[in-house]
Amino acid sequence: MAKPSNSSDTDPIAPSDDPDFILHSLQDAFEKAKRFEASEEQMLQFYEQMLLIRRFEEKAGQLYGLGLIGGFCHLYIGQEAVAIGLQSALDNDKDSVITGYRDHGHMLAYGIDPKVIMAELTGREVGISKGKGGSMHMFSTEHKFYGGHGIVGAQVALGGGLALAHQYNEDGGLCLAYFGDGAANQGQVYETFNMAALWNLPIVFVVEDNQYAMGTSTARSSAETRFYRRGTSFRIPGMEVNGMDVLEVRAAAEVAFKHVREGKGPVLMELNTYRYRGHSMSDPAKYRTRDEVQEQRDHHDPIEGLKKTLIEGGKTEEELKAIDKAIRARVAEAADFAENSPEPEPSELYTDVLVGEY
User: Fold this and answer.
1) Distance in angstroms (rounded) separating the CA atoms of residues 208 and 103
2) What would the pLDDT profile of 159-173 be if each residue is shown by its tens digit?
3) Most CB contacts within 10 A, which of 224, 233, 260, 354?
4) pTM score above 0.85
């Protein structure tokens, strides 16, 4: 191809704004302090929150097996450190969160009452979306939690819109937009990357890489499996984080959120994690071995890892068992509440279909 007349073989064309552009990753800053210096009180809170997600999801699996939860149901078991580590660093008065259909854990991480979440799972009138959203489409504008989306990757573009709203309203908030390793190959993700970088939007993109896009390993489905590098062409700095260590996740969140709040534009975080169950309750997960799952449970479990840290810090097995017992009781109460709550009236089929006012 012919070069423009003002160029020469010794003077290659370079971007006029920044000929020496190099993407400086936030990884360097993160590596300097890779684990959050949590107080005992904070660690106990993280432990309780992760345990609540674990026990809640186990109970949801049981209710699905009993036929009390219909449709699809995607459990978050194994990934608890991601939601707790990130969302514990948010400003709940300003920031917003949006995610895909594996969403129960993110709602619980927000401190939303497990009763109304379980009621939503079982399609009850008192559910957080009036029993009409179910497992995949939970929503709470009160908590600035915008779903729960069934279309793979669609939440990323909507997250860009939420970030634009934060910027336009000058409210100081940021959007935390979760998506999975499977959704990372969607075109709309990269369209959103481009606009977010172009407009300097306050958004943190989070790839929850649980190693399997539905039933296909990332090695087979993605040409570039280091997802944190996928923002490079849009000049979005990336971070690679162990998503099975809640203290490491929280430390990474501190670095990423600070960058965004300082007006430096979006960040892309890759959280390497692992789901113990299948993609959904209908997935027998025959694409991996039991030994692989057991190895993750034995050596990388986020709850057991923090439990070990707490015991090393002076907590006893009895104290932590008491916490587990209390959480099991709380989850059982949520399940009873859901089972004993009425289903929506048939007339509810005609509500929330069209927007009444703008």
Assistant:
1) 12
2) 999 999 999 999 999
3) 260
4) yes
